[in-house]
Design brief:
single chain, Amidase signature (AS) enzymes, eleven-stranded mixed β-sheet, two-stranded antiparallel ribbon, 15 helices, Amidase_dom, FAAH2, EC 3.5.1.4
Amino acid sequence: MERSFQTAEELVAAMRAGAVTSVELTDEAIARIERDDEVINAICVPDFDRARAAARHADQARARGEDRPLLGLPVTVKESYNIAGLPTTWGMPPHRNYLPAEDAVQVSRLKATGAVVLGKTNVPLGLQDIQSFNEIYGTTTNPWDRGRTSGGSSGGSAAALASGFGALSIGSDIAGSLRTPAHFCGVYAHKPTLGLVANRGMVPPSQPALPVDLDLAVVGPMARTARDLTLLLDVMAGPDPLTHGVAYDLTLPPARHERLSDFRVLVLDEHPLIATSSAVRACVNRVAAALVDGGARVERHSPLLPDLIEAATLYMQLLISGSVARFPVESLEQLQTRVAGMSADEQSLDAVRLRAMLFDHHDWMEANNRRELHRHGWRQLFAEYDAVVCPITPTPAFPHDHHPNPLERRIDIDGVEYPYFDQLVWAGLATMPGLPATAIPAGQSPEGLPVGVQLIGPMFEDRTPLRLAELLEQTIGGFQRAPLFGTELHTSAKRLHA
């Protein structure tokens, strides 16, 4: 295997052994990006000069006897993180020239452990889509099929990992933004427990980078193996030094079990509000079969599972009301008229989303109180089970869809169309109560597209789904190199340059 596709653990070990230098790894990564990213468009803000300087400093530090967890390792960072001297735009044209003055806390942590930042990865406009395209940087394609999306909003990071552009990346997740791109591109991601990882500096452009506690949203690691996820989570996890970090240190509990045979797992492949494609269902069942073969206790139904319809409703209410608060709707009067004309019997997710756009503080508090009841229900479920296995989205990566009004887009599930944003219900299952969830590759569709599943674990027991991910990787395999990285990709790149 080329070094560009080796794991972070393998590359760090090779540097420790003197088999390769950070400068060599960085030059190889930059060469690959310059050769292949014309087609993929994952790296929207390259920072190669500073990366090469950081690599030289890493090699000098190692020569002095220093050894840090990521010393000399080439990585990428989602565009939405502040990096001093580089633009942070969130894909929004009015902010194309905004340059933050300081690094986000997670960028600082990467650099403190010796990582070499190659550049920033592409995102959708305002991080508000399941795809990654915007007017400033264009469209990120899927390394497995250029006609399909890499996912969003961390789509650039997932495509970069799948393309060999750095060994690790960091992203964020409020609506599956870590997990969906991992699922679409065949890599790994971990949505940490809400509040586990400090998020200061992952903030809309020109807004102050304050140490605030966000609702629903988290930042987290992406990688090509489950063990690399754990490596990066250990770098990222912990409170902000400006707030809780003044008084608290983080110690994550170990995984509940080390052997597959000791795990108790609930497997879900159906949702009452949206169909599951046959390709995704097959991969969920593949994981279930591997669990059974490994001796795990696997069940398909449980009266302890919180109501999935109410969970999806609460998620949409909290997600949309929070989004509107940050990015206000322009036609408020028209929206009020439209909602007022809706029947009280209209309970579709589209209707839930429209009503949530008009939530006041009382409405939000009511939804939040119901969320606490769901969290209690999950605590009861995880007294009986160690993890829940379920889809991330209902389909593999879908074709690019740049319709200007996302509310008019549709998602095709085995020939039946559903509202575009209904596909978020599976991602919301972990997001609404703030649970950790690990996305793992689980197989391929008949068309050869990657398919992932998520492993949802107990709150603040993030090592449990991560350990289960490692065990499943050993059983069913994991990252597979995209077939586009051959003659077809390079021929396409030459055509683009011609």
